[in-house]
What we know:
Blueprint: H1 2-15, H2 17-24, H3 26-34, E1 44-48, H4 51-57, H5 64-76, E2 81-84, H6 98-110, E3 115-118, H7 124-127, E4 132-134, E5 139-140, E6 146-150, E7 153-154, E8 158-159, H8 162-171, E9 182-184, E10 199-200, H9 201-209, H10 213-220, E11 224-228, E12 237-238, E13 244-245, H11 247-259, E14 265-266, H12 269-289, H13 293-317, E15 319-320, H14 324-393, H15 398-440, H16 448-460, H17 468-482, E16 487-490, H18 497-507, E17 515-519, H19 528-533, E18 534-535, E19 547-548, H20 550-553, E20 558-562, H21 569-581, E21 583-584, E22 593-594, E23 598-603, H22 607-613, H23 618-624, E24 627-630, H24 641-656, E25 662-663, H25 665-672, H26 679-693, E26 698-699, H27 729-738, H28 743-750, H29 754-771, H30 776-784, H31 790-808, H32 814-824, H33 833-845
Bound molecules: adenosine-5'-triphosphate.
Amino acid sequence: MALLAVTLAAALWTWAPVTFTALDHAAYDFWLTHRAPRPVSSSLVIMARDPASDELFGVEALDRALLARLITAIDEAGAAVIGLDHRLDHASPAQSGGAASDALFIETIKNQPALVLTQSTADQPLLSEAVQLGHLRISTDADHVVRAVPAEENGLAAVPPFGLALYRLARRSGAPPATPDTVLVDYAGDGSLQALSPLPLSSVWAAVEAHDGERLTEWFKDKIVVIVPQPPVAMPALLPAGQAAAPLTVHLHLLNMLLTDSRVCSLGMVSRALISFAFTGLIAWTLLLARGPLGWFIAMAGLLAYGSLALGVLAAAHLVLPLAVPLSAALVVMLGTALWNQLTSHERVRLMEQDMLRLQQEAAAVREALVLRETRADTLQEDLQAARAAAAQSAEEQDELMKTADALRRQLTDVQAQEEEARGRLTELERQLQSLRAAVIEPARLNDIELDRLQDECRQLGIVTQDTGLLRLYRDMKKGARAPLTVLLLGEPGTGKELFARAVHRLSPRSGKTFIAVNMAAVSPELFESELFGHTKGSFTGATADRRGYFELANHGTIFLDEIGDLRLDHQSKLLRVLQEKSFYRVGATVPTTVDVRIVAATNRDLQRGVSEGWFREDLYFRLSGLVFRLPPLRERTGDIPVLVERFLADIAAEMGRPAPKLSNDAMQFLEAQEWKGNVRELRQCLEQAVALNETLLLGKEALRLTGDRLTAGDRPKASPLLPEPAGDAAVLDCLRQHEFDMQATAKALGWDRSTVTQRLKGLCFQALVECNGDHAKAALAIAGDASHLRTVELKLMDYYGHLVSVIDPFKSADEAIAECRRRFKNLPDRHFASVDALVRRHLAK
Ligand SMILES: Nc1ncnc2c1ncn2[C@@H]1O[C@H](COP(=O)(O)OP(=O)(O)OP(=O)(O)O)[C@@H](O)[C@H]1O
């Protein structure tokens, strides 16, 4: 991408050379005009015409005899080198001394070994007489600004720039400037002739006329003296500071730069290309790594940093870095990555979805393995203790038992190590899952303004709420709606799942397409495939024409699978196939139909519990739970009741063509105290009834006609302890539930060791098994409390019971078996031995 962007930026340069050239030199021009003024070398004296000399000699070219006199005087004053810009392309006219002047001038310059003349092709007839030449060419950039002079001009003989020729002659050094083609000029001041503090010709002439040797020596001794006798040229050069100046002036600034040793370097093509490529590559990498606003922020900061770096390097090392190509290529990259992200966002989200699914499945497997290993570790610990105790009692079998104990210890260490590893893996998987979810929905705090805004947006979608939790859920759902992830809406009946499903569709890029809602519970089992996937004509009796199914109707749009928890297992696998492959066969068709549909599913059933109880396919559950939102029941957001009431009363009254009634305070309080098992739907129905049966404008409590046997929130039964309360077991159970039956975490919270917690849970499991008549599933549910950790408890319970059975199996008599259990499970609280007793007797009776 960087390579492409640099190439494109270079190509753009040829398309808009003026803009690109100006941008490329922006740092250089800025630095030149804003830095402290560069000093003028004390070795340089420029003698230029001034108004007084123009009055004295006229504004035309000077008489060559006069020039010869000046050169001689300057030479006699001890000048190191003399530079002269004088055209020799024509003979002097009679009024300027004619041939005599020319002869004197030629004679003078022939005798001057340290003289440099400016080159002019038209000067050829007299050039052979000149001692040294320097060219006066300048490099004009595409934006018409002169920033450099060509380094060397190759004619028959190499001619250096005028300034460089003078410098070489004065310093007796042949060192060429560093850059290959052009030499950047570091202008003093604004780059004008005045900035070099020229000496007025009239003053010098006065000193020559007065034979003031002392003055002349003071001015010229050991100096490089440049005589500028010509009137200004018609085609001046434009300088970076905006001034216009003669090419000679540019060369004089070059000379001053060399004398003050303040060279500015620019880079060659290869180095510029490499820098541009490296910088653009870095920006591209940043944008692809940190997507979204953060990436853009870093990229913009990178652009600014590069601009500042270019200025810094110029100020510190007098090196000009390229600007135009790296900056424009970086912009190209920014646009390119934005486009790329846009184009690949679907694919990325699909991959993310796959990752999420894989991680969810892996996490479930690891969690299960962890539970098994944890329980196995506890069991081994118990066996080890029993083996130790037996070894202490029986001397003959000591050796044998010690070996068993050693083997158990080793196994225990292995299992504990595996448990630790499984724990680490689980933590890592959960972290990955978390960050994947966060990648889809980035959390952010909500302030009052945002809450108001969200409330407004909700209202436009028909959702009435002022509950912060629900608004936050809406905010997250809105973000998730943009991605093609499957959405699973959970919640009690009437909490607004369909309303939110429609909102997901309207907030998604598919909002312009079809939204198809299918109530899975209402689809007849026989017609399931035909309804969902369609059929072909004649595929069964009554199929008189081809018919498209719901999935096809929803193509490019959204399908809402309501009551997904009520789907039969065989239909679940059919649905799973469509979700995985995005294609299906119409009933009777031989070719598959492919569709592009966004899935939103909803249920009021506990699908996790369905998975653990086996009535809902785990793979389908993982497929559906791309983004899961749980809609809170109305009793958990009673603050919404007044706004819902206001909205519903207005709607209902409008439907009936009556003015909207109000609710009295006690009626409102009464509504707020209700249980609302049917949630918002029930509230609306209650109000519909009240409005239909009462024509008053103020509805009191009695108008609401809620039946007396309803539960109010205050009457709500407290979560009843599942088990009788034997000395703190309920508290332990609570703690276990809070810590998701993680023994280590529970032990830490209770300040116990893990095996004590294990013994308590084991006792509770045995007790629950007895109370549930040996029904494992029921007993596990009684311990787990709800479905969220049912699978974990089930695994533990089965393991505890399995271990108990393995202990009692060798015995024929219940008493002996119970005695062995007492010995083996000696850390089990005493009160639980009644349950062990009952379980042993039941098992042996079987
Ligand atoms: N927050 C809300 N604002 C306004 N109306 C709501 C809200 N929540 C639910 N409703 C209304 O309550 C009724 C039931 O909502 P909806 O059908 O979306 O619930 P549901 O959870 O899908 O129910 P079920 O599980 O029985 O299918 C609808 O008339 C809906 O408009």
